[in-house]
Structures are given as structure tokens and as C-alpha cells.
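Q: Can I see a sequence and its folded structure?
A: Here is a first one.
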Amino acid sequence: MTRMIIVRRVADLRAHVSGWRGRGESVGLVPTMGALHDGHLSLVRRAKDDNVRAVATIFVNPTQFGPNEDLSAYPRDEAGDAAKLESVGCDLLFAPDVSEMYPAGFATSVSVAGITDHLDGIARPGHFGGVATIVAKLLLQALPDRAYFGEKDYQQLQVIKRLARDLDMPVEICGVPTVREADGLALSSRNRYLSAAERQIAGLLPRALAEAAQLLADGRAAAPLLTDIEGRLIAAGFGSVDYIALCDGMSLEPLAAARPGSRIFAAARIGRTRLIDNWPVL
């Protein structure tokens, strides 16, 4: 197996990608913040399936953390992450520092309106501005043929699709199905914060969403059903629920009843861990 290249400067990233594309080799990009798990690796595997080359990025982006979110506590393990990436055939890891991505005098931001007015756009003010800005930079720095994002962060996926489309970026944005534990819990870097007892409780979230999705598909009204789910989560041991909502799968506008393409979304806190998930309804 060819050894994975690690670069930290945009110029070096561009040089390698330019060389590959000059030889007619397609490139898939997988942006991450590190602390990699099998969900991330599934994105890299998909990138390798679809393209000749796969590039992953690791950058803990400070601009997408809110004032009450601890940037310094976000898990970091570059050496371990690099080994995982290499094991699934990643060709290059781009791991810049903050000064490379936000040099002195940086004064530009990217925002996506409408689709960010709901769900985490309300629960985490400013978050998607940071996401849109850093993803726009990474797409322009790497100029991949395709970029891959997990459906667990479904709102983020839709924001990035809109971003790329509205700015005429020559890249295909590909969503990849959520990877789950045996009990249905979506894989997340933040799951490592769960205690053993909290981990047992956490599995209720996907089960409740799956059950609700079936009832909504059968014609149940959304409001009482969503209220019931919130009560079940709190009774089971979740500390708080940021939202449970039925939304259109494209615009993410709230819905009173299910229709084709709708999804149910949830964000809830257990201990110091915030879990998000979503489930297709129809």
C-alpha cells in the first residue's frame, strides 16, 4: 500500500491535487474535524470507490463553535486519525493550523440563508456561518471532483449542497448514509463523552425517531407525537431537548404532517454530550 501523504499548507495540497488531475485522476474530498470513527472512514471508502484519489482534511474549525461550546475540549488525535485514514487507502491528509486557514487580516465569511433558519440554525447561532466559510475554503483549496458528508449532520449536508450550487462550484456534493452502533445510535466523535449509564440511555433517541417516523408515515399529526417523544426522552434521563421537529427534507421548513421527502430531526443533551440524529419519514 502506498504511504499516505500529509501536508499542512494550501500550496502543497494544491500541488498534489493538480498533479493528479493533470494525469486525469479524479479526486474525492472528505472534510473532517478529526477524532475519526467508522462513520468518517465510510466517507473515505466511498471517496475511494468513486474516485482514483481520496483526500481527507482534519481541521478543528474555531468559527463554528459558539460562545458556550468548548473548542479546547474537542477531542484531538492526529496520529491515530492518520493511521485510520491510511488503513482505508486515503491518499493525502491536509491538516493545516489555524493561521493557515485564517491568516492575519482574514475578513470574509460565507452565509447560507433560509435553510439555516431552523433546527441547529436556531439552537447554535452562528454555527452554520462557520461551517459554510470553512467548507467553501476547503472546496476551493482542493478543487475536488466530489466531496463527501454524512447524513447524520443532515442540515449541514443541505447547507453545503446549497452553498456549492449557489456559488457554481464545480464539485458534486455527496451524502453518505449514517453509520450506527448495534442499538441504532449514530456514530459521533462526541459519543466518547458518554458514561456507561448514559450510553445505555442514548440508544433511545434513534429508536424513538424510527418509531415516530413510522407513525408519521401512517398519517399521525406531528405536534402531539413530537411532544410525546420529548417527554419520553426526558423521562429516560436526557437532561434537555433542543428540538424535535418534522421538516421538509430539502428546505428544512417545519411541517404539521408528513409528506414525501420529509424527515424527523432531534437534538438532545445527556450529561455533557449533545446528540443529534434524523430519520426519513416517507
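Q: Show me another, different protein.
A: A second, unrelated one:
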Amino acid sequence: MKSLTELIERARNLKRKTVVVVGAEDEEAVRAAIIAQENGVVEKVILVGNVSVPEPGKNLEIIHADSEQEASEIGVKLVSSGKAEIILKGLVKTSILLKAVLNKEWGLRGTGVLSHVAALEVPALERVVFVTDGGMIIRPTLEDKVTIIRNAVDLLHRLGYSEPKVALICAVETVNQQMPETVEAAVISKMAQRGELKNCVVDGPLGLDNALSQEAAKIKGIKSEVAGKADLLVVPDIHSGNFLGKAAVYLAGGSIAGLVVGAKAPVVVVSRADSAQSKLLSLAMAACAG
């Protein structure tokens, strides 16, 4: 992908999906869903919460809920029953919504952990770069990182990447016993070489510079299929992923889209500070992933 706007075009060409806004008292979330509908990204919007009658002419449905728990249960059940395909978080606590998503009886629990994937478009790069996990797992273990990679690679396959290049990002590109992240990166890279991570190319530890820039990789003498060509950046903890995503927007003038993956349906968690375009792109990515 060269631009995040490709997500919108791709979503328009797929079978249109229904998005359920859980906690529809959040006007910004509702507005994001309606913008996605107006742009042909989704077909129908279902609002779950304590809200008023929808605007005339809109393909909207309202389901009343008195509490965050009730709204989350109704929203998740709509998706698990096949009446909707995308969840958009509104005015509910993330923990309450995700507890419903992970309900063993009627939820959307997948085979592993939930993780977050962000897609970044910045002027300095000629391609979209994905980052995981800057939104869910605070300090992932080695096993968590393997699942995080699998979740993200599955998403990239759905977005048209046949064999995404995955870089395990650290402060340095050499193994250093004082930096456990570099040791874990080397172990995961070896696992990938042995076929334990399929349909992707994995390398690490790599610095951010030599993961993104072929020139930087050349200067440092790094020979790798991933170096300078990474599609997916796997960060060591939630802090670095969060900083990287926000830096792309606020320091580099870029655009961002993101969603929670690992469940049986995509979950979009937008911030009130996100731009309308970012929310639209996030829903478009969810429409492509579902």
C-alpha cells in the first residue's frame, strides 16, 4: 500500500458491512460511523445505547441499552450472531467492551490474545507501515510477541500482502544481553526461519532506521530481506508503539488508522482526539479485515 486512502477504495469494492456502535451516546463515534456510511465504507449503522431517534433518510437502527455492560453485550451478540461485522467503541470503557468480546459463551474470542495494529502513512516514506502493539499488551512476553505477529500478519494478508516483511524493533540491531528485547527478537527471528511463523519474513533485532531505510541498512552493513523494506514493525512494549504512532501524526504530519485484532471480528477503538479522517480510515481497515 502506498497510501491509507487505498483502504477506502478497497472497502468500497467489497461487500458492504454493518458496523455497530457500542455506547452510541458518544457523538464523535456515531459521526465517524455515519461518515464511513456516507463514503461507501459500510452499508448500515446500528447504534446501541441510550440515544434518540436517528436522522431521517439514514440507514440507521437504534437498540436501547441502559448501561455499558448491556450495550457491550448487545453489540457483541449482534456480531457473533452475524447481524453486524464490525464493532466501533463509543461511550463505554474499553475494559468492559473487551470483556464482552472475550465472553466464552457468546463472545468473539479467537485462538490467542487481542492486540492492536496501527497503519501509518508519513511524507518521508513511499509506503504504508504497520505497527504492533501500541494499544493492548503493556509488556508482551516472547510468547505474546509471537501471537502479536500472527495477528498482524493475518490482517496484512487480508489487506493484500502475500508475504509481509516483519521487523522486530529494538534500540540497536545487535543482540545485547543487557537488552532482553534484542535476545527475544533474535529468538523469534530463528523461529520464523524454522517455519514456526508462516507466510511472512521476519528479522530482528533491527533499529527503526535500518528497518525503514535501505540506505541506513546499507551504511550499517545489514544484509536482510527485511532491512529497509519492513511492512510491519513489532515494538517491544506498548509505550514505544504508542509514541511511534503519535509521533507519526504530530511530528511528521502523517495519518494513522488502527484496530484491535485477534478476535473473530475487528474492533475499532477511536480516540476523541483522532481526526475524522483517521476514524474513517480505521473503519475502512476494519471493513477490509472483517
